[in-house]
Amino acid sequence: MEKNLFKHQVWKSAWDNDPNTSLRIMQRLGQGNFQTEEFKKWAISYDKNSFSHEGRQRSNRILTWIEDQVVSFKDLSVLDIGAASGVFSIPFAEKGANVTAIEPSPELSIMLEKNSMNYSVQVNIIQKPFEEISTDKHNQSYDLVFASMCPAMKDWEMVEKALSFAKKFCYISMMGGPKENHLMDELLPIIDLEPREIGSSDMAYLLQLLYVNGYSYQTLIEKQMKTIKIDIDSAVDNLTEWFIEYGIPVEEKLLKKSEKYLRETYEDEISLKMGGRFGKVLVHLDD
Length: 287
Known about the structure:
With 287 residues, this protein is of the alpha/beta class. It has helices at 8-17, 22-28, 37-50, 53-70, 89-94, 106-118, 135-138, 156-164, 182-187, 202-212, 232-245, 252-265, and strands at residues 77-81, 98-102, 123-126, 142-148, 166-175, 180-181, 217-231, 269-284. Strands 1, 2, 3, 4, 5, 6, 7 and 8 form an 8-stranded mixed sheet that branches. The longest helix has 18 residues, at 53-70.
């Protein structure tokens, strides 16, 4: 096993064959394809949250972490992969960067264009999946390549493609472990299941592959949790999604047993604590 820890192919194959990567969980939830109705519903909610006060604070916190390493965004050429409605493209542009945004979803691309106008910044939008973009035209064209929680970063092949577009820096963020949901942790013994073991982590594969391939990088793993109020009916409606995230079979008997427990235990609202570990890495390509 010690020798395997330093073998590129071992980690690449493990990532390729892991059934519980973030993208595969999204696909089981019907959110892995931007053309599905579930994705379109998610996009509307995501845009609203991205430009809330809390969303803007989060964007600024991440950009500050990067800026401490790159010195300044002014006149920096930035490629934002999976830009969504501009949650990062717009702050980059506000700081003086020349931003090109890749976003395959027509709905999110329209939102991005509107948000750019609302914030009086210019963003060059490429409406195409990152997987379909030729490396010949864009090879090492950008000072900073940026991919935040981007489904396109699904394996080492796509990471290498992103790295090939960058002259100086490449930022990638991913889940640093499975999502946590304290209500689900409460339900597991009720439905006669063992506590969940530590699950898949895309970030673990990424960091190991960057290491064995000799890259220089800085990384940060953070645990972020939030508590929200949710009514019983909404909790019941979300059970199927939570089961999938936890790798639990979506069986009618388990769903009914969970619903029975929730309705008997809680009168009205539930204080739901949820979140997880998130990882971010900035690769320094000019070192």
